[in-house]
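[job 4417] fold queue: 2 targets
>>> target A
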Amino acid sequence: MKLIYTGKTKEFTPELEKKVTGKLAKLSKFIEQRGEREAHIVHQIERRLHKVVIEVKFYDHMLIGEGADAELDTALCEAVDKLEIQTVKLRNRWRDTHRDAKGVRLAKEASEDNFVPAEEAAPQKPLRGSKNNGSGSKPKVFHIDYEEDRKPMTLDEAMLEMEGGQPYVVYRDAARGCLSVLVRRADGNYDLIES
């Protein structure tokens, strides 16, 4: 990260530059993903109080971290901490708004197309007397991703959701807060598995 220092009262010494680059090292991992950035550092001393302002332009936004303390190192740490908080918030907001909704929908449809019922997916167990022919085939595991931010539901709501023909429903129980699985048996009744 390129540093541009402005200070009326103190020179930007190589020792001070090392301290600042060390403190901005973690922040530069987030910021410099799209090319090298510039950090403008403004340092002032007012009544034995060091005031440090660090400005960085990131995704067309100006991030500003301000720190003030009697010691320069503490003021720098405070300014860098504020910059890190702003950077993480901005990155998360940018990632959430620019996530490709079409790609997520296609991945969800592909996982539904590859779904195989449990009876077909389960490998046949060899009999006790028979030996493995050395085929080395491993059982296939199918992952089905449901929406992660689903709200907790009651047992009745889970049974209503199973009316769509699903063989099972995994949900967080609203009353107890535990993870529960509701499974439809072959005779039409339900089994409830709670953790």
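>>> target B
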Amino acid sequence: MDEKFDFRTLFLKLQDYLSDDDRRRLHFILGDTIPRHLRDDPTLSGTLSLLESLCDQAK
């Protein structure tokens, strides 16, 4: 399998274990690494967008 696909799969599995507070903490910890509009949305959808942004930066 593609290494990037494996990494994204791992992100999704980890996401399932995060509480709402955990998501807020994750967004806070990443700070200036991601755009502000992504940091301000700690919902499940927002966190997936945040993780996608991290994957895009790794390219």
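[job 4417] complete. Note on B: The two ends are 17 Å apart (CA to CA).
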